[in-house]
Amino acid sequence: MAHINKNNFTLIELLVVISIIGILTSILLPSLSNARYAARNALCKNNQKQILIAEYVYSDDNEDRLWATSFGSGWLTSETWNNNGNPGGSFHGGQSGFLVPYLGEDDEPIYSCPATDYDKTSQFYTFHAGKSYEGLMDINTAPPVKVEEIHVRLGLRYFLDASRKPLFWDYTAEVGGTSNFFYIGSSSIHRNTGKLNLAVTDGSVVPMMLPTEHWNVFVPNVTAWLNALENAIGESAGSGVW
Questions:
Q1: Is the per-residue pLDDT at 28 higher than 90?
Q2: Number of domains, the chain
Q3: Is residue 20 part of a domain?
Q4: What is the dihedral of CA 49, 50, 53, 59, to 10 degrees?
Q5: What is the predicted pLDDT for the residue at 120?
Q6: Beta 188-189 vs 166-170: how paired, if at all?
Q7: What does the alpha-carbon distance between residue 131 and residue 134 come to, in Å, rounded to a whole number?
Q8: Scanning 28, 107, 136, 153, which has its CA 20 to 30 A from the CA of 142?
Q9: Mean predicted confidence (pLDDT) in 43-57
């Protein structure tokens, strides 16, 4: 008579185990994905915090002046500033870019948000060279300025008198408008949830909610942008102009 070896799995038992593993995997994978995203978002916030620190080290070295122009994310390592369309000035005597002496060359990972998944074939990635953080000061502000002179790159340039001012944020997308200049491709910024991070002049990095339908910077919904900024920093925008 044949004997059954009870130490071996039967085919049915093996199929049951495989099914259980499949079920557990389907349950755990979303949680693991969310945990990975949370870690990447935390690192993104930390990058912004380090950039803020570098901003203030620069400020200490340069008569308490800050600079975060709205020219995409290129301001992070820009070697010069604009002066209302005319030649402006050079950072560090023209020897290096704005934050390079404090944070390293322009290919350092600190300049990019790990929670942004770039489509490297898109104009969005090419134009910004993989960098992630856009300044909020007007591009024609000219040189670095005192904190009380900082204003936001919006038509009416708000937050002139606020005690806390928005300085830079996670760069979103230029996706159309009147010129349809950039395409984002399959790039995903914070999973395109509208949950962004905003660096504030008091040295904090705060959460900011700006739905994707308002990411268009060619024809921005100024009201939506202002509401998002006000809610994020807890300050009301003023009506003064620069």
A1: no
A2: 1
A3: no
A4: -110
A5: 87
A6: unpaired
A7: 9
A8: 107
A9: 95
Q: Is residue 136 one of the residues assigned to a domain? A: yes
Q: What is the pLDDT of residues 121-153, one digit of tens each?
A: 888 888 788 899 989 887 666 788 898 888 776
CA distance 196 to 205: 10
Which of 200, 192, 181 minimizes the C-alpha distance to 135?
Answer: 200
Q: Would residue 16 count as lying in a domain?
A: no
Q: Within 13 A of 105's CA, how many CA atoms are on the CB side?
A: 1
Tell me how far apart the alpha carbons of residues 112 and 103 are, in angstroms, rounded to a whole number.
12
Q: Helix count (H) and strand count (E) of the chain?
A: 4, 8
- Cβ proximity of 150 and 66 under 8 Å: yes
Element of type H or E holding 31: helix 11-61
Distances in Å between the Cα of 154 and the Cα atoms of 19, 58, 194, 217 are 56, 25, 19, 10
The two tokens of residue 162 are 């606020």
The token pair that represents 163 in the structure block: 């005690």
Measured from the Cβ of residue 10, the count of other Cβ atoms closer than 10 Å reads 10
pLDDT, tens only, 186-240: 888 899 999 999 999 999 999 999 998 888 777 778 888 889 999 999 988 776 5
- Cβ-contact 207, 169 below 8 angstroms: no
The label of the residue with tokens 């916030």 reads 45
Place of tokens 């799995």: 9
In terms of residue numbers, what domain contains 205? 45-233
